[in-house]
Design a protein that fits this description.
Four copies of one chain form a homotetramer. With 200 residues, chain A is mainly alpha-helical. Chain A has a domain at 58-195: Orthogonal Bundle (Tetracycline Repressor, domain 2), CATH 1.10.357. Chain A has helices at 7-21, 29-36, 40-46, 50-73, 80-100, 109-115, 122-148, 159-180, 184-190. In chain A, helix 5 packs across helix 7. The first copy, chain A, is elongated and about 60 Å long. Chains A and B meet through helix 6, helix 7, helix 8 and helix 9 of A and helix 6, helix 7, helix 8 and helix 9 of B. The first copy, chain A, binds a DNA duplex (21 and 21 nucleotides) through residues 1-5, 7, 28-30, 38-46, 49-50.
Amino acid sequence: MGRKSEAREKLIEQALILIWENSYHAVGVNEICSRADVRPGSFYYFFPSKEALALAAMEQHWQQAKEEIIAKAFDPSLPPLQRIVKLLEQVYQFHAARQKGNEPVLGCAFGSFVGELGRDDRALRERIHAIFMEIGSYIEQAIREAREAGDLQIAESEVTTTAHAVLAYYEGILLLARAGNDAQIIQDLSRYVLKLVHSA
Amino acid sequence: MGRKSEAREKLIEQALILIWENSYHAVGVNEICSRADVRPGSFYYFFPSKEALALAAMEQHWQQAKEEIIAKAFDPSLPPLQRIVKLLEQVYQFHAARQKGNEPVLGCAFGSFVGELGRDDRALRERIHAIFMEIGSYIEQAIREAREAGDLQIAESEVTTTAHAVLAYYEGILLLARAGNDAQIIQDLSRYVLKLVHSA
Amino acid sequence: MGRKSEAREKLIEQALILIWENSYHAVGVNEICSRADVRPGSFYYFFPSKEALALAAMEQHWQQAKEEIIAKAFDPSLPPLQRIVKLLEQVYQFHAARQKGNEPVLGCAFGSFVGELGRDDRALRERIHAIFMEIGSYIEQAIREAREAGDLQIAESEVTTTAHAVLAYYEGILLLARAGNDAQIIQDLSRYVLKLVHSA
Amino acid sequence: MGRKSEAREKLIEQALILIWENSYHAVGVNEICSRADVRPGSFYYFFPSKEALALAAMEQHWQQAKEEIIAKAFDPSLPPLQRIVKLLEQVYQFHAARQKGNEPVLGCAFGSFVGELGRDDRALRERIHAIFMEIGSYIEQAIREAREAGDLQIAESEVTTTAHAVLAYYEGILLLARAGNDAQIIQDLSRYVLKLVHSA
DNA sequence: GATGAATGAGAGTTCATTCAT
DNA sequence: TATGAATGAACTCTCATTCAT
């Protein structure tokens, strides 16, 4: 009945790391293969194309992020707005730990990836956009709960846009962290995130 | 004999467009040359490498942004905080016009570029970071003036960080606009930018 | 229990179609397998190589041609020279039907196949040549019978060569039909075939 | 002003030989390059694709055939029908010489090539068809002249079709010669070609 | 000063085939 | 008996770059 291996998983794992650290276009199939200890000829048994692997890597990253970051941050037992703060805190911890180990600060894999997609990569771009919208919906839920709890004086009609504002701020912070190779800025700027959800 | 060859300028111009629309690694030297109507052999007469061209393109983009966007936004005759609003408004106009012409929404060239730089591109990354810091200093100056005019109640020690927060938000907005191929979000989210500069 | 796997037969059948429509070298083992709904790993259980499959496909095609075309054309109840005419007529009907269904006109599978064999494919080439000689012998028999019946004034020593001439004309007609993607030429040129068997 | 070389010509020349001896799909770009003493990276400077090279090789072969074979065969000073005979004679000489040197008998490059083209190679197939039609028009002209000189009793309306019949016979002869790796059959069957042009 | 020609290295992908089960 | 998994070699083609003029 044929053989079995974790080659597929290893390819996804290494692809994510390499693409996140460098970029989709800068990383070659051969490099991914050799890091995953998979023979180059085997790659196309597991994935129809490099693009499909990149998509799978993004999907897997999103699943893992939901399990490891989102689930902990958007814990219903936390006060709603604290969840948003916790999201940023965890992301800071991740990048701070990397920086301590002299690894470059990576920023957001989805954000970097979407920045290098072109006209012809519509499907990939739309998938990343959908992931952003999912992240946004977690933030939105927290804001809505805060509002309903009376912690917030904003119109119901502002809730979604406010969530997007938080998301944008989040992505922007991670982009600046990557640009400056500096995890500290994540912590510094996180302090202001709740300003965005309160009425001016 | 009049003016110099325009080949260099054309190369920079086309490189910026192609890199912004696609990405640095996705765009080839030959493609840039053919768009610029420059023979490929001539490329290395004008630039020592593709990387040098990309850097030149970023520099030129920054100079132009200063002349056409920054100068108008940070006009001393405007009320300080209005300058920040105007910055976003102009960027929105640019992307809205493109979208009207069925061109993809591009986001920030610097932001996208920095997202695809890797470990070995330290010089490029640091240059983009420096440009971000320059943008930040315009914002910082506006915030400081507003504070000194009494429009703002924040500590002097918060001014720089607040400017970075605005910059992060700005970059995040443009990233989401690119991800969603949607210029409207720039306008929608711009309404909240001043929340970041007021004390909570 | 019951009948054997049909995988072998399906592989042969699909291989013939694909090779005939395209070419031996242009068609991959995987493509044949997927069309035959056979898992690629199974291929080498049934055939030792792609070449062996191609040979089997040619053999099967030849057996089928003998049963469906040759047997009807070289029916002893037909006047000898009419058999040659009937051969061409049936081949025309086959290709005309295909063209009506907007399928490309294929020409002769053996002729196309032999055209793409090289120095190192001696065994295959000789097998196709032998099939040609077999076809020739049917034609030769018809010519001989016509001569013995007094329908023809050619020397006995010319019979074999004349049969080869008819065979060459037949192959040439099918080649032109494929080149022009036009079945009609088969009918048009068939009218002249008996000129070749009469003395000048 | 750049360098100069005969690389393009050598590539065409070697491509023709290799494709003729083997087949388009069986021959790789690398093999053509190494025979032409051209570095593989240079190939795509000279030709946009392997297909384009194949087409160029066929074109060049046709030009050369016109100059070296057609021009001599269809010499107006020859009696019209002798021109057709001469065409076959020259082709026989070419193949007989090759066989003497223990080279495989090749048949017609155009005929073999068209046999391995598939659905998606419409442009190539149509070009080869057009070449066939050109060859046909030389034959047609000879037949027409013979008819006008009173050497032939066929209807004017039969002239074109008769020319195609001769062309088909010619292609079929070369196909059989390749299949049998036997140049002699070209000479043997050539003796019958004029039967096709006389009325039955 | 400027460029047409050329290139080695490597890109992503497909190949006919083999292996472990 | 039959196959899902895997593969090294080869495929067509593109890359950033250099060379001769």
